User: Which sequence fits this backbone?
């Protein structure tokens, strides 16, 4: 979402960091460009003025003049102000109240309230181990109640039985009673929306609030709607009193101004962001991490959290034991490729690494096609169990059968087998080394720009473009990966991660 803003700000701030000393005129000229970039990104004008004034007051003071690297000090000031504008600390959903805790979802029609209700329910059930009941109070939109019921069936979360003819306030009373009698920890009330804010909608929301007495009132806003979303938040807050915001479609290509403005304008925290269509595509909003992404500094913490959620610790420990013995068959390779898919594929993972934002054009030229992972898994799936455990059995006729079964060419099968051989060799070498697989990458939390020259990028592009499997990074690995490995990887895990290269 913040791609164009990130490009603009990175370019402006890079020009400052290249200078040895900064004058007031340099800072003023750079801030003029920052102001223009924020306005183009659809950030509220009042917020932009406040932001640039605060940055300028700090940037032209002694803080920068005395600094050894004035340009980098300005970058830090801009980063700190971005974090302040987004709301210093991330605030999760507050469940600190007597059960059942009522969460009321409000917003306009089409903003994604029902889908978000299902996502929050799944998150609270899986992560927080809470017993959740969902209830649809939307009697206006056709099949709205059925939609929530289907979402509940898909995710295994209870929904309030539908009784035709009941009003939203009657449903709210019944939901609260059912949640209390059923021993539920949380009850989520999915209210009706309108195509625009009107008096009947606000009256209905106020009545539901009076009956349900919700602990949290979350406004669901579509982040692609720009400044309208800010006005919407102000209206709902004035009439109903919201406790937090949920921004949907943060994976879209909007300019991101609403996300940057809403906290500053309403004073209410953005609690969650929707990052996709899937039921688990919901993340907590961390201002510092979003600021890091906008300024091209990566988001290694979110990558680590994603890994710890996506990867089964028990399975990781088993795999680690195998790798230490130097065992690595095609089933193991398939497992690694599947885990990479869960983490968002090559492009998703690389996008969160520090410094990668500065290499975006080179990465685009490298054409990192995540469909390669699916093709490689299809090839492995077309093999028999025996073949997966003993790849040496694969003669010419077997390879032809596998290629036909997976819809690929024999050369694709050969490339996969070559990659597996290289990785298996490396497993044997790495199993003997202290620190495991991730330690060998030499990665650390230092950030900075990956040392990858254009020739290396061309090699990477050729390898991926020809379906040659996971590309390998330079000998130093990818800066930004924690030295101890990702949580749940068991040290020696994650050979499917690019950067493994050939055995030295």
Assistant:
């Amino acid at each position: 979402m913040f791609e164009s803003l990130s490009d603009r700000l990175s370019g402006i701030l890079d020009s400052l960091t290249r200078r040895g000393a900064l004058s007031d005129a340099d800072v003023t000229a750079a801030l003029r460009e920052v102001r223009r970039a924020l306005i183009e990104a659809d950030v509220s004008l009042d917020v932009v003025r406040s932001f640039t004034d605060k940055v300028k007051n700090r940037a032209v003071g002694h803080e920068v003049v005395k600094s050894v690297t004035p340009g980098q000090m300005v970058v830090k000031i801009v980063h700190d102000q971005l974090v302040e504008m987004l709301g210093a600390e991330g605030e999760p959903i507050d469940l600190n109240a007597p059960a059942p805790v009522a969460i009321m979802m409000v917003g306009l029609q089409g903003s994604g309230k029902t889908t978000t209700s299902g996502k929050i329910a799944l998150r609270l059930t899986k992560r927080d181990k809470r017993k959740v009941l969902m209830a649809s109070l939307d009697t206006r939109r056709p099949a709205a109640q059925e939609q929530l019921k289907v979402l509940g069936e898909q995710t295994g979360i209870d929904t309030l039985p539908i009784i035709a003819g009941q009003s939203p306030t009657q449903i709210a009373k019944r939901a609260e009673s059912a949640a209390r009698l059923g021993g539920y920890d949380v009850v989520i009330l999915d209210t009706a929306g309108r195509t625009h804010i009107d008096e009947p909608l606000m009256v209905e929301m106020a009545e539901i609030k009076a009956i349900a007495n919700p602990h949290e009132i979350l406004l669901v806003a579509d982040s692609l709607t720009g400044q309208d979303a800010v006005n919407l938040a102000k209206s709902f807050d004035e009439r109903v009193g919201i406790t937090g915001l949920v921004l949907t479609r943060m994976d879209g290509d909007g300019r991101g101004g609403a996300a940057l403005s809403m906290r500053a304008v309403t004073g209410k925290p953005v609690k969650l962001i929707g990052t996709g269509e899937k039921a688990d595509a919901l993340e907590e909003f961390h201002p510092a991490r979003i600021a890091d992404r906008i300024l091209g500094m990566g988001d290694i913490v979110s990558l680590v959290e994603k890994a710890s959620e996506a990867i089964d610790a028990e399975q990781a420990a088993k795999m680690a034991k195998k790798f230490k013995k130097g065992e690595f068959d095609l089933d193991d390779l398939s497992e690694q490729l599947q885990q990479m898919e869960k983490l968002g594929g090559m492009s998703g993972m690389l996008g969160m690494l520090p410094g990668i934002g500065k290499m975006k054009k080179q990465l685009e030229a490298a054409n990192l096609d995540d469909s390669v992972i699916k093709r490689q898994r299809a090839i492995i799936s077309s093999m028999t169990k025996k073949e997966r455990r003993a790849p040496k059995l694969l003669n010419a006729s077997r390879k032809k059968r596998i290629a036909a079964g997976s819809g690929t060419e024999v050369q694709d099968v050969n490339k996969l087998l070559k990659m597996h051989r290289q990785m298996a060799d490396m497993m044997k070498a790495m199993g003997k080394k202290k620190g495991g697989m991730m330690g060998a990458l030499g990665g650390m939390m230092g950030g900075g720009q990956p040392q990858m020259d254009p020739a290396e990028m061309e090699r990477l592009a050729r390898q991926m473009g020809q379906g040659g499997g996971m590309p390998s990074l330079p000998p130093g690995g990818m800066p930004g990966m924690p030295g101890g490995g990702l949580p749940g990887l068991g040290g020696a895990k994650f050979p499917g991660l690019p950067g493994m290269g050939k055995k030295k």
Notes: The radius of gyration is 26 Å.
